[in-house]
């Protein structure tokens, strides 16, 4: 097998090229190839200096993540970096694109670093539950000082070429061809007789206790249970030791993290981000063109969707019922765009806004490629809108609804072109939240689904295919774990303990803080909508209905489960008596945090297994991605299905069966969960099946 590392030499300069598509990951063959190339340089009397660069769009994408968790194969990356650094002949890293993780460490193992404008130097390891494990925490501070290293490494951050030059991480930046510029640099170094400059020979950085205190305080608060950022700070602190001792400490901390479930969860999430859009049904299916999007309704969701499209350089025609509402929508969108400029997500708000047309007449949509309806959640209203869209939109155009729970098939069948109708369920704020549920009723054409996924990619969204049922994937599962929380309240738990336990599990908010943020009227209306179909054995949070009738709607009225000074909430003492009344003479029990988490998660996983079993979600990984990007599930746990595999499906099913003895209606085990347990299989096995 040819090595992914090529060696050539001319005019006294060796050029070492790494060519391992798609991202020049530092798999075993690349590491061995680099090792052999430096050996060859040492023996090549015609070469006095070497240039290291990457073929394709990256310098090096870092360690090969797919090798993690498997027995390590030599040479190890720290040894490869040490081998490059030990070279008696200078080695220049010529970086034209991303140099990430181990890729940045290889560059720091070189003696000189030249970057092309547009290059990027970063340490994303903590995003995988790791830390730089090939000298990054020891060599970077020696070049930049502690502050810059503590800025970048615990955050998994990156610097541009210009930024890297400013902090002293690299030596030069060029606008020219990277290899030609590197050859000029090489000739200059040879002429000057410059010896290899080894970063490990540099003294430890000047102590900076302030920088460490600041970083530790920041990440103790921000990490919410994630261990890698704080461990990375400890590794950077080891740069105060002699280099070899610091490297040993970095290695110890790195290997410790490699064994954590968080590393497994974050890598699971990394690969899911890429697998979720790979659907067998879309293989080889070309999407339809989308350059001009229509949006019906300029409320919070409509304006957010229009903003998301404008941010992705699409033209937008927004329809509102009258001029005043259209102007209001334009004002909201303008504010969204200005905020995007402030966040550095957009350069020119005016240019983006110039792509927006507002109108009150549907005929303005006669030439758009796709329209997204975002009007009031009422089936009659939706059907009226779709009848008008059906009348004005051109053949081949796509009609999409942003409904968050209504029957998309019923909406589709109200048109003459159900094959061109699809659900595009955005999450609020639509121009910020990354999740997009693509709801595909049976009659929808495959190229319409393909177009939805292509649009999602263009909008920078993570799209998940969902079947058509009440609440699709996310809201259906949410309704169930919310139901478990309400049951625990009836059985004796306090809403505040439940919120604390769920935050302790790693979510940004507990269910009752979430209810206060969304508005208790939303919860009330959802319950009211389901009264007709509710099973008599089901329970309802009557205390929450009382709160609604008292006008306690949560943050927006300053009172709900919590009372609010601004955004800060304090437990509302008046909720207790309402709950006690609702409990009546129901037997009570106490719940500690672990018991609360277990029930909440079991309800989430059990419903998710039903969603996968029914084909509403194609694979367990689709559920994991949905909960991560739409419901605040901690990324370091990988997702509820990954979490379930980590605790063991048999134990989870046992719990569910135990709880079913007292509440058989709510705790009906999912057939898929029972099947997997009896087959001795896991959700991960199902994900694997789907790639076969
Ligand atoms: N290892 C293995 N596979 C990788 C990979 C990697 N490092 N990076 C990407 N891939 C796969 C990916 O799964 C996909 O596969 C394909 O390449 C294209 O990726 C010791 C411990 C580089 C910015 O964290 O951030 O070094 O789906 O779709 O949008 O200190 O990939 O086609 O089958 O994302 O152009 C540190 C991770 C590792 C970088 C390119 N490095 N990668 O984005 O393409 S830890 C990272 C990315 C480390 C050392 C430590 C992005 C990208 P498939 P893609 P893209």
Structural notes for this entry:
The chain is globular and about 85 Å long. Helix 4 (about 135-145) packs across helix 5, helix 8 packs antiparallel against helix 9 (about 230-235) and helix 11 (about 260-275) crosses helix 25 (about 620-630). Strand 12 (about 290-295), helix 12 and strand 13 (about 315-320) form a beta-alpha-beta unit. The model has no long low-confidence stretch (mean pLDDT about 95). The strands form five sheets. Strands 14-13-12-15-16-17-18-19 form an eight-stranded mixed β-sheet, with helices on both faces. The chain has about 700 residues and is α/β, with parallel strands linked by helices. Helix content is about 50%, strand content about 15%. The protein binds (2S,3S)-3-hydroxy-2-methylbutanoyl-COA (T1G). (2S,3S)-3-hydroxy-2-methylbutanoyl-COA binds near residues 64, 100, 102, 124 and 133.
Q: Tell the overall outline.
A: globular
Strand content: 5-15%
Number of strands: 21
**Roughly how many Å is the radius of gyration?**
28 Å
Mean pLDDT over the residues: 97
Low-confidence stretches: none
Helix count equals 29
Q: Report how far apart the termini are.
A: 26 Å
Query: What small-molecule ligands were found?
Result: (2S,3S)-3-hydroxy-2-methylbutanoyl-COA
- Helix fraction, binned, reads 40-55%
Largest sheet: 8 strands, mixed
Sequence of strands across the biggest β-sheet: 14-13-12-15-16-17-18-19
Secondary structural class:
alpha/beta
């Amino acid at each position: 097998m040819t090595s992914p590392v090529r060696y050539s030499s001319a005019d006294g300069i060796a050029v070492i090229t790494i060519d391992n598509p798609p991202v020049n990951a530092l798999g075993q063959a690349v590491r061995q190839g680099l090792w052999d190339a430096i050996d060859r340089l040492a023996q090549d009397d015609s070469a006095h200096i070497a240039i290291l660069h990457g073929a394709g769009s990256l310098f090096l994408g870092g360690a090969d993540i797919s090798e993690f968790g498997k027995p390590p194969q030599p040479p190890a990356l720290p040894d490869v970096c040490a081998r490059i650094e030990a070279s008696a002949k200078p080695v220049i890293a010529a970086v034209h694109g991303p140099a990430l993780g181990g890729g940045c460490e290889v560059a720091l193992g070189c003696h000189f670093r030249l970057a092309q404008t547009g290059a990027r130097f970063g340490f994303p390891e903590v995003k995988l539950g790791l830390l730089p494990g090939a000298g990054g925490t020891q060599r970077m501070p020696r070049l930049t000082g502690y502050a810059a290293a503590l800025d970048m490494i615990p955050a998994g951050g990156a610097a541009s070429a210009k930024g890297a030059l400013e902090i002293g991480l690299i030596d030069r930046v060029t606008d020219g061809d990277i290899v030609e510029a590197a050859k000029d640099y090489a000739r200059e170094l040879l002429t000057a007789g410059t010896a290899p400059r080894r970063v490990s020979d540099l003294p430890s950085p000047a102590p900076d206790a302030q920088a460490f205190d600041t970083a530790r305080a920041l990440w103790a608060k921000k990490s919410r249970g994630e261990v890698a950022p704080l461990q990375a700070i400890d590794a950077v602190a080891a740069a105060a030791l002699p280099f070899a001792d610091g490297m040993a400490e970095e290695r110890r901390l790195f290997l410790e993290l490699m064994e954590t479930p968080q590393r497994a969860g974050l890598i699971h999430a990394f690969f899911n981000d890429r697998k979720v859009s790979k659907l067998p049904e879309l293989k080889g299916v070309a999407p339809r063109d989308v350059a001009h999007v229509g949006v019906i309704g300029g409320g919070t969701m409509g304006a957010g969707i229009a903003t998301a499209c404008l941010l992705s350089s699409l033209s937008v025609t927004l329809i509102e019922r009258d001029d005043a509402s259209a102007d209001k929508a334009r004002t909201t969108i303008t504010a969204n765009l200005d905020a995007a400029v402030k966040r550095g997500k957009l350069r020119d708000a005016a240019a983006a806004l110039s792509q927006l047309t507002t109108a009150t007449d549907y005929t303005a949509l006669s030439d758009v490629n796709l329209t997204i309806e975002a009007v009031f959640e009422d089936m009659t209203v939706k059907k009226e809108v779709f009848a008008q869209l059906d009348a004005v939109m051109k053949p081949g155009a796509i009609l999409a609804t942003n409904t968050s729970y209504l029957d998309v098939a019923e909406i589709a069948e109200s048109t003459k072109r159900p094959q061109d109708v699809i659900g595009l369920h955005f999450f609020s704020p639509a121009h910020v939240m990354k999740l997009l549920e693509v709801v595909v009723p049976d009659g929808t054409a495959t190229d319409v689904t393909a177009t939805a996924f292509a649009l999602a990619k263009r909008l920078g969204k993570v799209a998940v295919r969902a079947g058509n049922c009440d609440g699709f994937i996310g809201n259906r599962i949410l309704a169930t774990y919310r139901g478990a929380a309400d049951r625990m309240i009836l059985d004796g738990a306090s809403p505040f303990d439940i919120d604390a336990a769920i935050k302790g599990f790693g979510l940004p908010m507990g269910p009752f803080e979430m209810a206060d943020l969304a508005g208790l009227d939303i919860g009330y209306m959802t319950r009211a909508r389901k009264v007709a179909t509710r099973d008599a054995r089901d329970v309802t949070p009557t205390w929450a209905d009382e709160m609604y009738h008292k006008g306690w709607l949560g943050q927006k009225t300053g009172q709900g489960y919590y009372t609010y000074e601004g955004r800060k909430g304090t437990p509302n003492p008046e909720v207790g008596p309402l709950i006690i009344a609702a409990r009546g003479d129901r037997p009570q029990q106490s719940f500690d945090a672990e018991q609360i988490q277990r029930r909440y998660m079991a309800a989430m996983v059990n419903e998710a297994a039903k969603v996968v079993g029914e084909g509403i979600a194609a694979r367990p990984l689709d559920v994991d991605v949905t909960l991560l990007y739409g419901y605040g599930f901690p990324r370091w746990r990988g997702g509820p299905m990954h979490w379930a595999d980590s605790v063991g499906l048999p134990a989870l099913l046992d719990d569910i069966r135990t709880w079913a003895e007292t509440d058989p209606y709510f705790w009906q085990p999912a057939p898929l969960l029972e099947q997997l347990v009896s087959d001795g299989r896991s959700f991960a096995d199902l994900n694997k099946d789907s790639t076969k």
